[in-house]
Design a protein that fits this description.
The protein has 288 residues and is an alpha/beta fold. The chain has helices at 9-15, 22-25, 45-57, 70-82, 103-113, 135-152, 164-173, 190-199, 213-221, 251-262, 266-280; strands at 33-38, 60-66, 86-90, 118-127, 156-161, 181-183, 201-205, 227-229. It has an 8-stranded parallel sheet. The longest helix has 18 residues, at 135-152. The protein is globular, with a radius of gyration of 18 Å. Bound molecules: zinc ion. Residues 37, 39, 66, 123, 232 line the site of zinc ion.
Length: 288
C-alpha cells in the first residue's frame, strides 16, 4: 500500500475534490522507466520531494533534468549531486537566449558539462515561434553547443519547434551524429522521424502521444529500438486538478499507449526504451 508521508498532504487534499484518486490513476511497470526530459529544477524543494515520491511509485528509475539557461544548468547539476535518482543535462534553450552565445558563457557551460553528474547536452535547438530570439542567433548558439557536445562526447537532446528543416540541416552540417542523442517531444511526420534516425538520433515521445492521432500513426510504425520516452515535466499550477499536471508519474501512460500502438506489452516498451536511453548515454549511468 502507499505510504502517507507528509509530502502527500496538500496533494491529497487537492485531489479529494476529483472523482479519480492518484491511487486509481497510477500505472506502473515492473521494469523501470527513464524520464528522459524534464525541468524538475523549476519546482520548489517541497514540490520536488512529492514529485519524486510519486515518480518512484510509478517505477520511474531515472529522471533527467534538462537545463535551459545558465542558472538552470547550475540548478540541474546541484539537483543531480543531491539526488541519486536525477541526472543533469546542460544546455541553452533557444527560446531563452537573450543574445548571441558569447565565449565566456560557452566556456562556463563547457566547464559545467564536464561534471560527472552531467550525462547529456540538453536542451538546445531551434524555436521559430513568434517573438522568439533572432534565427541567426539561435542557429549560431546551436552550432556552438553541438561542437561542445561533440568535444565532450555528450549526446544531444534537441528542441525543434516550427524549425525542423533548419534543425535537420544544422545537425547534419555539424556532424551531430558523432554523439547522437534524442529528438525531444517529437511531434512530426514519418519523414522527419526518418531524418532524425538517419542522423543517429532517437525519437523521444511524450504525452501528445496519448491524444494526437497523426503522431500515433507515426509512432505505430517506428522501430521500438529507436524510441525513448519523456514527460517534459515543469510546474503547471494553472491546471487546477493536480492529477492533470504533467509529472514523471505519467510516464507509464506514455509507455502503455506506445505498447498498444506497437502491438507489444508494456513491459517490452519499458525494457526497450530504458535500454535505448542507457545506450544513448553511452554507459554513463546504470540503474540501481
Ligand atoms: Zn524541455
Amino acid at each position: 500500500m502507499l505510504s502517507k508521508q507528509p509530502v502527500w498532504g496538500s496533494f491529497d487534499r487537492l485531489q479529494s475534490r476529483n472523482t479519480m484518486t492518484f491511487e486509481e490513476e497510477l500505472k506502473t511497470t515492473r521494469h523501470p522507466l527513464i524520464d528522459g526530459h524534464t525541468h524538475v529544477d523549476q519546482y520548489s524543494p517541497d514540490e520536488l520531494e512529492g514529485l519524486l515520491e510519486r515518480a518512484r511509485l510509478a517505477n520511474v528509475g531515472l529522471i533527467i533534468a534538462a537545463g535551459t539557461t545558465v542558472s538552470s544548468c547550475e540548478n540541474t547539476l546541484a539537483l543531480a549531486e543531491s539526488h541519486s535518482f536525477i541526472k543533469a543535462g546542460i544546455g541553452l534553450h533557444p527560446a531563452d537566449l537573450t543574445g548571441p552565445l558569447d565565449d565566456a558563457t560557452a566556456e562556463h557551460l563547457h566547464d559545467l558539462a564536464t561534471h560527472a553528474e552531467v550525462v547529456e547536452w540538453s536542451e538546445c535547438g531551434l524555436d521559430y515561434m513568434p517573438h522568439s530570439p533572432d534565427k541567426a542567433v539561435q542557429q549560431d548558439a546551436l552550432r556552438i553547443q553541438i561542437r561542445m557536445a561533440r568535444d565532450l562526447g555528450l549526446p544531444l537532446v534537441i528542441h525543434s519547434r516550427e524549425a525542423d528543416p533548419d534543425t535537420v540541416r544544422i545537425l547534419n552540417e555539424e556532424h551531430a551524429g558523432d554523439v547522437g542523442g534524442a529528438w525531444h517531444y517529437f511531434g512530426g511526420s514519418m519523414e522527419l522521424a526518418k531524418q532524425a534516425m538517419d542522423i543517429g538520433f532517437y525519437v523521444s515521445l511524450a504525452k501528445p502521444l496519448l491524444r494526437e492521432e497523426p503522431l500515433q500513426a507515426v509512432a505505430a510504425q517506428l522501430p521500438l529500438d529507436r524510441l525513448v520516452i519523456e514527460t517534459d515535466s515543469y510546474p503547471q499550477p494553472f491546471k487546477k486538478n493536480p492529477l492533470r499536471r504533467t509529472e514523471p508519474w505519467h510516464l507509464p501512460q506514455v509507455a502503455e499507449k506506445l505498447a498498444e500502438l506497437q502491438g507489444v506489452d508494456i513491459e517490452t516498451v519499458a525494457e526497450v526504451t530504458t535500454a535505448n536511453y542507457l545506450r544513448m548515454l553511452g554507459g554513463r549511468v546504470e540503474l540501481g
